[in-house]
Amino acid sequence: MDKLIITAAICGAEVLKEHNPAVPYKVEEFVREAKAAYNAGASIIHLHVRWDDGTPTQDKNRFKEVMDAIYAEIPDVIIQPSTGGAVGMTDDERLQPLDLTPEMATLDCGTLNFGPVDIFVNTEKTIIYFAEKMNVLGVKPEIEVFDKSMVDTALRLHKKGIIKDPMHFDFVMGVQGGIGGSLRDFVFLRHSIPANATYTVAGIGRFEFPLAMAAIIDGGHVRVGLEDNVFISKGVLAKSNGELVEKVVRMAKELGREIATPNEAREILGLKKK
User: Fold this and answer.
1) What is the value of pTM for the model shown?
2) Residue pLDDT, tens place only, 109-124
3) What is the pLDDT of residues 212-243, one digit of tens each?
4) Taking Cα atoms as reference points, which of 130, 114, 92 lies closest to residue 13?
5) How many CA atoms lie less than 13 Å away from 62 in the CB half-sphere?
6) Which among 4, 33, 145, 248 is least surrounded, fewest beta carbons within 10 Å?
7) Distance (Å, whole) CA 144 – CA 80
């Protein structure tokens, strides 16, 4: 069984300081939260960025500013920019971080009713456009799926040569409008991907730690962070992203699963440090 890769999704585009004061907006806050997660055992920082007032942005210069500041403190960490951005952004607006040629970035593989009123739009044309740009730039996609149909889309595009091997999936589970966060749902997605693919599980809210446990046992990988869940336990706010990562590390140690370093994560995922 591979060592466990932990990804920390440190802020997202929706969660606010009103939900948890540790959510980063400013550059120094991003560095603080990335370091806390890395020091606790995270190999990958899944990155959205904000302006200082908390407004989400895909501006590549803001991404560069934040990424450079993080790399200055933790140079071996893997930074994985989001190309999801925020609901309502255009394709080219969302793609800006790819101009920085990160090692990997997210590739959302379907459209989703995102909560009660929003729609997160990813047409097949958009998915192909994003995937082909990643191929040209040598950026590994993390295939984000919020439902089984998105797995099927990714596999179909893989068969056409648009999404390359080795595939790495992120099962985002428990979003209102997507697949649920039950163990039944996890097993369904887990057995829907090829045997040579790797996966990470991102459980939303109360599903975060039960699904982390399932992935640890199964040999998969885990994403936690304030983007997905602001609580360390029921009704208790997490003090930092690092505290969320620490909880996963304790779970893994109890189950005899070692934690991957960033370079070990690169080897598992087929990445080359740039």
Assistant:
1) 0.97
2) 999 998 788 899 999 9
3) 999 999 999 999 999 999 999 999 999 999 99
4) 114
5) 21
6) 33
7) 12
Task: Tell me the per-residue pLDDT of 237-262, one tens digit each, with 9 for 90 and over.
Answer: 999 999 999 999 999 999 999 999 99
Q: Are 121 and 157 in contact (CB under 8 A)?
A: no
Distances (CA, A) of 253 to 136, 181, 217, 256: 39, 23, 11, 5
Q: What is the mean pLDDT of residues 44-62?
A: 97
- The domain ranges of the chain are 6-269
Regarding the domain delimited by 6-269, which CATH topology (the fold level of the hierarchy) does it fall under? TIM Barrel (3.20.20)
Is the alpha carbon torsion for 3, 145, 135, 102 positive or negative? Answer: negative
Distance, in Å, from the CA atom of 258 to the CA atom of 136, rounded to the nearest integer, reads 34
Q: What is the mean pLDDT of residues 148-153?
A: 98
Measured distance CA(223)–CA(239) in Å, rounded: 17
137: closest CA among 96, 186, 178? 96
Which two structure tokens, joined as six digits, stand for 12?
Answer: 């997202």
Sheet arrangement for strand 140-145 = 78-81, 44-47, 6-9, 221-224, 198-203, 168-173, 140-145, 104-108
